[in-house]
Amino acid sequence: MDRKKCCVQLSVHPSRGLMDEKFIVLVQKVLPGCQLTVHALHQCEDGNSWEAFGHYTTDASGTVNVSQDTSLGGTYSGVEAMGLLWSLRPVPGSKPGLRLRKKNVQTPMEVTISVYQGHQTEGFVDQVPLASVLVERWYMAPGVRRIPITEEGLTATLFLPAGPGPFPGVLDLWGGGGQLVEYRAALLASHGFASLALDYLTCKITLETGKMVDNQYFETAYRVLQQHPQVLGSRIAMLALSLGTSITLRMAVNSQVIKLRCAVCIGGSHVQPSDGSVKEILTYFNRNGSKTRFSEKNEVIWRDLLLPITTDPSFKVDMGRLQCPLMLVVGEDDQNWAAYDSAMDIKEMMERAGNSHLLTILSYPKTGHLIEPPYTPHFRASIFRKADTHEKIMVLWGGQTVEHSHAQEDAWKKMLVFLRENLYGGTNPGATLLSHL
Ligand SMILES: *[C@@H]1O[C@H](CO)[C@@H](O)[C@H](O)[C@H]1NC(C)=O
Ligand SMILES: *[C@@H]1O[C@H](CO)[C@@H](O)[C@H](O)[C@H]1NC(C)=O
């Protein structure tokens, strides 16, 4: 081994951090003007491997600082501090349609950052890197508690922030794929919100009885969260994506039980039978099944199912009656749901009713349906298993990787500020809470 090789120094700070935290990758003690590839490798829980890499040239001091230097090529280019994470993609030869989602949030996502000589694009496994560092990325901050909830027939997990509490609460809903998806709730708890991840499609009751849950199920979840001794019962929000947004909007407006401080709704719609159950909502969506389109790669496009947005008020949540602040997060290239058109219609309804001061819309060009916490890789399409029929299909979500990734970063920051303002702000909830801001 030559001298240049053995002296290369690679550091990542922090090497253990939260999923939404930036890191600084620094390569030092290389000769000036050297070509290097900085590479990230992650093996996920189901055994699939993911990689990302950027091509760099060392500066006059023999250094590459990924946070401020330009990648000249690779899976991302330009100055992209976190490109090594958001541009992760399955290694060549992987099955098509994979999506990266952490199931066990009690262990970190482990990423090996390595530096290779030259500008490489393939065959990393066959090469010896100049240096490597193992990085841990966590959804659960130290001290966050994970509590499975089965009472009152719920399939849910509560995440409590570190510290004495009580904390404001967030009820967290995902979309049509079902499952108990915990990672976003875990990350919200890491930011000071007691967060309840709720499975409402593949939950225990449904698996046991074959029946879908009714609207009461969500009210029960709300009450369990509200009455928890560590939760401030008058400071509860809902946060949702996709089908979860349909449910959140309807509960926020119609429920006699659920009283929200605010709601954050990503990639969804208010179009639905105004007094239907989850099952009736799904049936209604499928009524225009013939409007399903397919991309040139044969990926399913569902965005037209609700278009044009109906003018019949009995098939829309009456947004004019909403009484809490609402943040809508929209990907303008959402190919799965008519999120943009719905947001515009919601805005119009609220303007007409005089409550549009409650509405904030974050709308992002070239951004798809799956707006996730920052640095989550972008999936333009992936295999989706319908919770009701168990059918496996390749679904087009939309978005362009760079724009989508930047949107995720921007949206998450703004969502956290919005939640903080509405859940921690206003009447003084007690001095102890300030320490969690
Ligand atoms: C690397 O770049 C970041 C962002 O510009 C900067 O904050 C940090 O100080 C740099 N580190 C070094 C050692 O130059
Ligand atoms: C189905 O499409 C028609 C127009 O073709 C539209 O008026 C109607 O609202 C759509 N149905 C649903 C469920 O959105």
Automatic annotation (TrEMBL):
A GO molecular-function annotation: fatty acyl-CoA hydrolase activity
Residue stretches making up the BAAT/Acyl-CoA thioester hydrolase C-terminal domain: 214-424
Coiled-coil residues: none
SUPFAM superfamilies: alpha/beta-Hydrolases (SSF53474)
Residue ranges of domain Acyl-CoA thioester hydrolase/bile acid-CoA amino acid N-acetyltransferase in the record: 20-151
One Pfam family in the UniProt entry: Bile_Hydr_Trans
Active site residues according to the UniProt entry: 242, 334, 369
Top-level division of the source organism's lineage: Eukaryota
Similarity remark: Belongs to the C/M/P thioester hydrolase family.
Annotated protein name in UniProt: Acyl-CoA thioesterase 19
Source organism phylogeny: Eukaryota, Metazoa, Chordata, Craniata, Vertebrata
